[in-house]
Amino acid sequence: MTNSVGISAQLDFDAWVKLKQAHLEQVLDRVLPSADLIPTTLHSAMRFSILGGGKRVRALLCYAAAEVYIQDTSSTDISLTDNAACALELIHAYSLVHDDMPCMDDDDLRRGKPSCHKQYDDATALLVGDSLQSLAFSAISQTSPSQNAQQQLQMLHILAKAAGSLGMAGGQAIDLSSVGKPLNQTELETMHRLKTGALIEAAVLIGAASAQPEASINNAEILALTRYAANIGLAFQVVDDILDVEGDSSILGKTAGKDANNNKPTYVTLLGLEAAKTYAKQLHDEALSALKPFSTQALRLQQLADFIMHRRF
């Protein structure tokens, strides 16, 4: 692990976020098929579903974890993380497209615009999700002169596990089967550690793997990053549940109050609003504590934990 904070740390957090978001938009635009390439409707819908919106939290976590191990973040070395960050956002976008469909959460609004199935149709939305998922694995498996096969296999393994039945898909299955049913806190956390937390944890571990082969990162550091990611992933969902109660659809970019209206178990319905806020802070504090061994090298991960905790949109 390097002792230098890196040039990007000289940027304030907002500037860093905007820089990474703009850069990732260019990467995604390059990776996605052109809208005029046959089948044009499918490719247009894929681009509609991922470009021009979203906070890119998973990609930002990926870049931040890579910066723990990359000394000069102004150099071309940081571009090694681009394919990984792109893949994470493609997987996330695919999950949103499928989650919004009538057979899932049935939501008409996403990122401040119509959901994919509303803008196009159900069949197109299904194919968009399938195609974005496939493209994610294509993106992360692209070869790079500075990455070895071990790194790529490690990243592919982490992403595949996070997206499957032991990750996001499994969490969504539990979510759908839990509508109208009382869940205790352990059951609720199991669902969200899979549905939301798995990809957030993957973002941190893949970011680190993109910068260093697994053999170069000691077990204590991997455990620390995993602990950080697990806590911040759960905090993300608790804050999401709070915003579902306190937020406004025009600001959130999705339908506020929908979970309560659909009789879904949330941290607010289980714990109450104030207790949910207290629990989110506890998770946030645990995440920051996990980063202490990295000192200033984990500046961006610390700032992202604050952003997730205090976000209002």
Task: Please name the defining characteristics of this protein.
313 residues; mainly alpha; Farnesyl Diphosphate Synthase; 16 helices; 1% strand; globular
SSE topology string = HHHHEEHHHHHHHHHHHH
Question: Which class best fits the helix and strand makeup?
Answer: mainly alpha
- How many domains comprise the coordinates? 1
What is the CATH top level name?
Mainly Alpha
Q: How large is the share of residues in beta strands?
A: under 5%
Main beta sheet strand tally, sense and closure: 2 strands, antiparallel
Rg over CA atoms: 19 Å
Residues in helices, as a percent range: 55-70%
The pLDDT mean sits at 87
Based on CA inertia axes, which overall geometry fits? globular
Give the strand line-up of the largest sheet.
Answer: 1-2
Number of helices: 16
CATH superfamily: Farnesyl Diphosphate Synthase
User: CATH topology, what is it called?
Assistant: Farnesyl Diphosphate Synthase
CATH architecture: Orthogonal Bundle
Which blocks of ≥5 consecutive residues have pLDDT under 50? 1-9
